Amino acid sequence: MIFAAPFTATALAKIDSKVRGVMIGAQSYSFRELPDRTVDGAINAYKQCGLGYAELWQGHVEPADRAKAAEWRKNPPLQELRQVRKKFDDAGIELYAFNYSFRKDWSDQEIENGFKIAQAMRVNKITASTNPSLAKRIDQYAQQYKIYVGMHNHSNMRPDEFARPEDFAEAMNGASKYICINLDIGHFTAAGFDPVSYLEQHHDRIITLHIKDRKKNQGPNMPFGEGETNIKGVLKLLETKKYPIPAMIEYEYRGTDPIAEVKKCYAYMKQALES
Fold first, then answer.
1. Where are the alpha helices (DSSP H) in the chain?
2. In this structure, are residues 31 and 255 in contact, taking their beta carbons and an 8 Å threshold?
3. Is 5 inside any structural domain?
4. Cα–Cα distance for residue pair 220/231, rounded to 1 Å
5. Distances from the Cα of 134 to the Cαs of 6, 130, 145, 148, in angstroms?
């Protein structure tokens, strides 16, 4: 499969969060509210939660200040970013993807630098909250660097936003194999679509899943098991079909401590797979 995870020298020391063959990890955005909003802080959170797969949010590496972040994107510190991968490897956590959300007002340099950052971190997958109209600009660099880009969906039905199956189809139409999908099953449910059937039909173009629980009809984010997202159905499909797609927890509902809440999410997913 084209999305198979690369072997690393630290594989034997890896944190094992694979349950019945399903890779369970987290989007590091889940830990955005922790006081230490650094890569080290995120890694510590993964270790406390017992999660061995990471999708690294760009907010954990770029400056929080917007003006400084824009300058950072124009000249990212690639040597420092090479050390980011080593930190994850040393902690026994697989850095599976880098989240870098391309925007329409970005220069070609800022777009290309996302691929240079991913390359420095030795990941071949980027996830992005972006726009269907940007797919062709993104694709030229994806092909050049041979890095897959998973387009992330939200639930808002707006022009030039990812929410419907048709939006993914628009982006992938005429694009290379490197333009893919990062399916957020909670947002997909809130927008009125079935993530289980979509996963089964399009698993070959889905590089990561974001796991959250939302109510239908643009309903709110809920603790796992209290919304209407078929989390168990998605996980069971991953198990039975052996799709090599990680299920990344994305904690967004209002809880207490992010680490405590992510632990609850992980426990729910383990129970769903083991029942």
1. 39-49, 66-74, 78-90, 108-120, 135-145, 165-172, 185-190, 195-202, 231-241, 258-274
2. no
3. no
4. 16
5. 28, 7, 17, 15
Q: What single-letter DSSP state applies at residue 11?
A: G
CB 13 within 8 A of CB 84: no
Place of tokens 């406390």: 48
- Token digits for 137? 């600009």
Token output for 65: 């200040």
Q: What is the DSSP letter of 58?
A: G
Q: What is the CATH number of the domain that holds 18?
A: 3.20.20.150
Q: What are the tokens at 192?
A: 């009125």
pLDDT grade for 256, boundaries at 50, 70 and 90: confident
100 lies in which domain range? 11-274
Tally the domains of the chain.
1
Closest CA to 199 of 228, 227, 240, 260: 240
Question: Which structure tokens are listed for 92?
Answer: 């026994």
Note the pLDDT tens digit of each residue in 40-86: 999 999 999 999 999 999 999 999 999 999 999 999 999 999 999 99
Spatial distance between the Cα atoms of 208 and 97, rounded to a whole number of angstroms: 8
As to burial, measured by CB atoms within 10 angstroms (0-12 exposed, 13-18 middle, 19+ buried), residue 70 is middle
